[in-house]
Amino acid sequence: MSNLKDLLGCSGGMRMLRSNSNHKNVRSRYVGLALTDPDAVKFGDSYSLGGSSVTVDATNVAKVLRDMAFKGAVHFFGNPTISGRKGKPTEVMTSKARGTQVSPKPTGEVSEKAEFDFEHFFINTRFFNDLRQNTRGRDVFLFTDQSVQIIRARANQPIFKEIGSSVEDDIQKTIEGSFAIEWNSITGELEPYMGWCSTIWTSAACATPSARLRA
Predict the structure, then answer these.
(1) Number of independent structural domains in the chain
(2) Which superkingdom, per the lineage (predicted)?
């Protein structure tokens, strides 16, 4: 009988893939979003949080961003005011097949798009009008219930588009809006950083002018 190495077609040293055997699987929705100036928040930075200095990492970056939002330095979309989704990435291919290749092959670079619905869009129209101009770079932090992914302004060049709200002829509904973010990455899909807990999100940060978004 073939051994596992033969079945997998591995060469060199064996490496096991990570699993969630000791944790819940990540839920399929973006539940939080934060926009910062380029490189304003990086893992390994020191930040004064609650009177104590902390080293920013995946376990506390949401708390750091929320604190910065109250100080007017971050635009913060908290749970449960936003929901987001993302499809599979579009792979950038070589220009043509060469030699014995049957088709162009992926280069490793991808382009991606995430779409968001935001409960308080209508009263934040001024902010979104500024966002649609794409006149300055922003880093984007995307949160699921257990992970964070980071779109960097300089490396990934995010573009904000498909921004707007609609007023339906339905008195039972409120006016909500949506927007999309597109970006590219020469190294493939954004790596998720694990370790934080979504229970720290509250809508309070979105409910005050100091968080820079009105509710």
Answers:
(1) 1
(2) Bacteria
The verdict on residue 16 lying in a domain is: no
21-32: pLDDT as tens digits: 566 789 999 999
Which residue range forms the structural domain that includes residue 81?
25-93+107-211
In a domain, 111, yes or no: yes
Residue where the block lists tokens 């880093």: 139
